[in-house]
Amino acid sequence: MLYRKNLLRFGVPAVTLALALTACGGGDGGSKKSNSKSKDEAPAAGSHAKDKPAEDKPTGGGALGAGKSATGKVKEGATPVTYEVLAQKVDVGTEADTQKLVRDPKKAKGLVPAVAHLKFTHKGGGVVKETPDAADTTEIWADGRRGGLVIGASEDAPGCDDPLDIEGWKQGESHVLCETYLVPKGSKGLEVHWAEKEDGEPYVWKFAGK
C-alpha cells in the first residue's frame, strides 16, 4: 500500500493523478471482487453485530444489513490486526464538487463524488504504529458497476479521520476511515465493498442513491 500512502502525502496533486490512473465504471471485469455475494437481500436493519460475540460475526465476505458489522484481519506492516468494520453511510456530492477534484472536468462529466464512511475498531493484535492500511480495500459500486477511486479526497471530509494523523492505534480504539469514488450522477443503488485483502471476498453494505 506504499503507492497510496505516497500519494496521500503529496495532497491535492494525488487526487488528479489517481483519477487518471483509475478507470471509472470498471464494469464486470473492473475488480477482483466482482463475484460479490451482494445479490441476496441483506438481513433486516436493527440487528447490530455489536450485540453478538465477535466469533459470531460474519467472516469471509457476503451481504450485510444496515448497521451490521463484520470482523476481519488486516496485516498492518508485519503486524496482523483484527478489526470490527462497519460501513456507516455514503455521502453523495454534486457535479460541482467533482470539478474541484479533477484536473479536467470534461473527462468527469456526469460523475459525482461518493464518500464511504467506515468505522474500524481495533479488536486484537499489535499496535498500528504507521499509517493504517485497513481501509485500502474499500470500493464503492453504483448500480452494479465499480466507481473510479479518487485518492486523497476524503481526508478533509466531515466525520472522516486523516489516516496520516493516526499513530499508535491500540486495541479498543476506533477511527472512521473514508474513501472517495466517482459514480454516475443519479445512481439508484450504492454498495460499499470491503475485504480483508486485495483478492479477498468482500463484505457488502447497500445504501440508497441520492
- Reading side by side through the largest sheet, how are the strands ordered? 1-10-9-5-6
Compute the number of helices: 3
The residue fraction in helices comes out at 10-25%
Tally the beta strands.
10
Percent strand? 25-35%
Low-confidence segments: 5-14, 20-56
Going by helix content, strand content and strand pairing, the class is mainly beta
Distance between the termini: 31 Å
**Cα-based radius of gyration, to the nearest Å:** 16 Å
* Mean pLDDT figure: 78
Please summarize the sheet with the most strands. 5 strands, mixed
Series of secondary-structure elements, N-terminal to C-terminal: HHEEEHEEEEEEE
Q: What is the 3D shape?
A: globular
Any overview of this molecule?
The structure is a single chain. The chain contains three helices and ten strands; from the N terminus they run ααβββαβββββββ. The protein has helices at 2-9, 12-21, 95-101, and strands at residues 62-64, 70-76, 79-92, 111-125, 139-142, 145-146, 148-150, 174-184, 189-194, 203-208. The strands form two sheets. It has a five-stranded mixed beta sheet, with no helix packed on it. Strands 2-3-4-8-7 form a five-stranded antiparallel beta sheet. The longest helix has 10 residues, at 12-21.
